[in-house]
Every structure is written in structure tokens, then in C-alpha cells.
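Regression test attached.
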Amino acid sequence: MRMNKRKVVGIFLGLLGFFLPWVIQFPGLSFPGHVTLGIFLLAAAFWLTEPVPIYTTSMLVIFLEVLLLSAEGPLCLFARPPVAAVTAEAAPREFRLPARAVTAGSEVLVARPSGAFDAVKVEVLERGPDTVRVQSGTLSTTSQVLTQADHWLARYVPASYRTFFAALADPIIILFLGGCLLADASVKYRLDRALTRMFLRPVGTSPRLILLGLLIATAVLSAFMSNTATTAMMMTVVLPLLAGLDRDDPLKVAVVLAIPVGANIGGIATPIGTPPNAIALAALTKQGLGVPFVQWVLMALPIVVVTLGVSWVVLMKLFRPRTAELKIELAGAFDRSPKAWGLYVVFGLTALLWFTENQHGISSNIIAFLPVVALPMFGIVGKKEIHALPWDVFWLMAGGISLGTAIKTTGLAEWMVGRVDWASLGGFAIMAGLALLSFLLANFLSHTVTVTLLAPIAVSVGSVAGAAAGFDLTTALVTVAVASSYGMTLPISTPPNAIAMGSGVLQTQHLVKAGGVIGVLGMALVLVMTKYYWPLFAR
Amino acid sequence: MSKIYILCIEDEPEVLEAVVRDLAPFEAAFPIESASTAAEARRVVESILQQGQLGLVLCDHILPGEDGVSFLVSLHRDPRTTSSRKVLLTAQAGLTDTIQAVNQADLNHYIAKPWKPAELHAVVRQQLTEFVLQNETNLYPYLSLLDGERLGEKIRQQPLPPDE
């Protein structure tokens, strides 16, 4: 029942947010800006309260943009401003125009066949109540002029609907697609399990070292696979190991917590580690600030390594193991079939090319298409794996990317942040504020949604606060993305947490304690990085 | 998540005690109930179904009054316990009884007395794994006690929770 109430409230808030800008006029914001604000408020309300699945909201966003903002959509088609031919006066180069056709700046807008308008400067000779007599060398009797120069479509050049649909094929989504297909193939040929075994074999039987090994193995896998898939796989590996332990040995809790913690932290390490990174990258690429794969890794690796160490200490202190040794036997060797070898070659080559982007200069987005082509072509994956790709995540990301485009092109971005004197706040304060907001939201919302909502805001702030001392857009977006990954306090914060809770080993308080301590320490590190390390990569 | 129970039916107290002792490792996740006659077992089943589900029945063949095979057949006909795994414990079962148990009660396993604890343990582990695979969606809690290989395989086939 409470669920239903929340849904009703969500739908009400969403519709209210959507129609509010149609009713209330905000000074300084264009009409398309109002429409986009409505779509943004609707999406925010739906993403926060989830009356429909979050990827559905993304699809709705794209649909509304096509209908209301694109040149081919019904709104722009039917709202074509009226045009009229000019009438020549007796004197040469003198014309009579409707009064509203001339702007305060003595300009008229001449319609081009394409539908766009050219502003033409005229000399006003005589201003009547309904008509104006002007002189101009550019106008002719074949000119079609806009009879309402203040019409909203006069200044707004709507984007083609292709722009909004194209978000689903955004290069960053292709990058993610490549990563997902590699991960799916690794699961199919049990490369993930074989690697886990390789990582855990040298650690012996000491519970402390096993815990560290688990953290590292999970983090490394989750840097290339989805955090959720990594957690699910690692759970099937570690839970059977716990059978030999006493029922109430805290080591059980520590081991089960190490998996979601390692997965959430490991996701930070690469652009394909988790969708929030890709969203931040997409926003940066749109601003012409593309971050190469290897540069992201260089930026993220220090904080990943330090937080893994911190997590190890925290888990050992909070859940001190009672047993002195834990024997682990892990089955699963490397698959040596020809197809598995094909996977190793494709994986190795892709990773190599990703990490050498600075040397060869080919974008990691293009390289990501190599596994997309090669894996199905050599029969390493089939239709089944293609169908099983996380299409909901791709749509979710596409909605965010196209929303960012709309916010920027309609002038909503500048308007939203134009009210505050950002420069006086200082660059670091702005970035720290974004980081904390991201962390707070990510504890309650999907991390992808958090970054989807915050990335356009960060970009907007960047466009006006660019001058503020110490503000750097790349740093700001990396900060937002990394901070979201530390939102792991509650069972609902992220799917890896939910899976860990589902094991039946944990109580909610275990997760809240460990996730809270590690999250807060991680955030402190994020702020240090934002201040001292990430700005070093600014261009 | 509703609890999955194990029910043991055996009329000789020492034998019943031995069964329950051999099954002790499972008790952490699967509460064990016992009965000494079919009639008592019916009452126990009713009270189990109030709180959870009946995962496994280990039933002696020869009982005072109604025999074990007939009880298992009636359990199988009840839709609430059709999917419960059924194991018959017996010292001497005639061919007719065995045929009836297999055909009408969908008997899953047959253990001859006397049994070895390791054998009983393996059978129960396998049967509970089957039950959990067929009836549960969240398999993680059973990974450490039951057949982790098979449960892990099923988890890999399951769709993951949406989005991060």
C-alpha cells in the first residue's frame, strides 16, 4: 500500500513539474527552455520516486524531446511563426512592414527556405500604429519576413529529432556496449572464475589475507565487468567457503561484505567499470574535453587502491575473525578451447589498445567496437549474449545524455545557474558541494540516475563558473562520478548491496556500519583528490 | 523468505534420534520436525505449512497404523506438498510397495537401513538442493550448505537486478 502511495505522489509531482513551466513564465528563459525545464522536472520526480521503472522514464524523456523540442516534432511543426511578403513603397529601397515585424533593435527576420531566419538591419523611417515604413538595401519584394519578431521560434533553431534518438548510439554507450560484451563472454567461458582462483591461490589460509585477496579480486573484475554481475559471481564463489566456519564467526560477515565493497570501489577504476563513469565521460566529451581510457585509470587508480586498503582495515576492525585459518578450495581452471582462446586474444588486444590510446591516438570509443564485432563474428558469443546485454542500462544512459543535450541547446543550462554568483564561492567549494550532493543522492538513488541528474548541472555551473579560481570541469565531473560510487550505506543503495543482503548472512546494521564508515572515509579522500590530484590533469 | 522444513517420521525412538543427529548440520537453515505415526505427521505438516514450506520428508516404511508409502502418496496428492522431496527409509520393502511409492508418490530417493551418516547427508543435501532450485528465487542463502556448484550455475543463468 505504501508503495502505491509513493507512486501516486511521484506521478502527481512529475505531472506538476512538467506543466508548471507551461503556466508560470520565468523571466530570462526562452520558451523551449521552459519546455525542457518541464521535461527535467518530470524526469527528476519519476527517477526519485519510480512510479515506472527508471529506464522507462529515460525513454519517455527522449519521446517528449522529440515531440516538443525537435524540428520535426509536432510542436515546432504546428507552431511555425506567421510570415508575410513585404510591400514596396513608391520610393526605392523603401518597404512597409507589419509593426510587430520590426524588433526594438531595428531588425527584421527574413525566412530562409530552410525554415531558419536571418536578422536584417533596417532603417525605420516612420512608425505607424499597425505598420512601419523602413528603408533597406537587403530586403526585396520576394522576401518573406516574420510578422512576429518576438515569436519563440524566431531565435530558437530546433535540433533534428535525429539528435535525440542518436543518444542511444552515443560513442560512450558504444564504449559501454564493448565492455559489457567482453564481460558477458568472460562469464560464458568462466574467465571470471579462473581469474578469481588465480588471485586467491597465493593468499594461503590466513583469514586476513583471504579478505584482502577477495577485495582485490572483486575490485579488479568489477573494473571491467558490471558491479552487479561481479558481486553475483563472487557470492557463488565465497558463500560455499563459509560452510566450515562457526555460525557466529564475524569473519563470515567480513567476507560477505568484502564483495559488494570491492565491487563498488573497483567500478571506479575504469570508464567502463560502472555506468556513472560513462555518463560523466559522455558529458565531458560533449564539451570537447574527452578523457582517454588510460587517463581515467590514472586519475582513479590511486583512490581505488587507497580505499581498498582502508576497507580492508575497517572490515578487520569491525568484524574481527575468530578462526585462525580458513581453507579454501576453488574449482575452475582456464578454459583452453579454441573459442576461449579467441576471447583471451580479443580481450587482451582491446585492453592493450585502450591503455595505449595516448600512443596511437584512436579513441577508446572506437576501440570498444572491436569486441562488439569480433566476438560474435568468431562465434565466441551468440545471439543469446547479444539479447542478454543490459539494454535497460543503455536506455537509461541514453535518456540522460539526450536530456543533457536539450538542457544545453535550449539555454536552460545558463538560466538555471545564472542566478548564483558562482565565482564568489570558489572553485573547490562548488566541486565539494557537487561531490557531497552526489554522495547523498547515490545512497538513496541508483548511481546512474544520480550522475545523470548532476552531470548537466555540473556542466552548466562550469559554463558560468569557469572563471572561478580552481574550478575545472573535468575534475568536477570525475568528482561527481567517483563520489556516487561511495554511496553504499543502505541495502537499497546499489544492487551489489542488495545481493549481499540476500545471502542471509548479514544484518542491515552490518552493512550500514561498514558501508557508512568506508563511504565517509572514501568521500574524505574524494575531496583531497578534488583539491590536489585531479586538477593536475586539467587542460 | 519462508522457512523450509525437514520432516522425519520414524516409530522407533532410537532410530529417529539417529536420523535427527545425522541431519544436525542442516538444522541452521532447515528446521527439523519429527513424528512417530502418519497421523501425528499430518498434524505436524499442517503446523509447518502455517509458518513455511515442507522441503523434505524422510519417512520410515513400516509405521503403526497407516504405512509410510500410503502417507507419502497422500502428501503427493495435496497440492501444497506436491513439490516436497520424498525419501523412503526402509529395512525391507516389497516390490509392490516400492512400485507404488515410485509411481504414485513420485518418490525421490530410497535409503536402505542401516545407512551410513555420510550417505544420508549426501542424499538430503541433493534433495534439498533440488527443492530449492525448483521453489526458491533467492538462492544465495543456500550456497554454503547445499550444492554450491549447481546453485551457482542457476544464479549465473538468472537475470541480474536492474541498473547500478
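Expected vs. actual: identical. Chain B touches chain A through 20 residues (CB under 8 Å).
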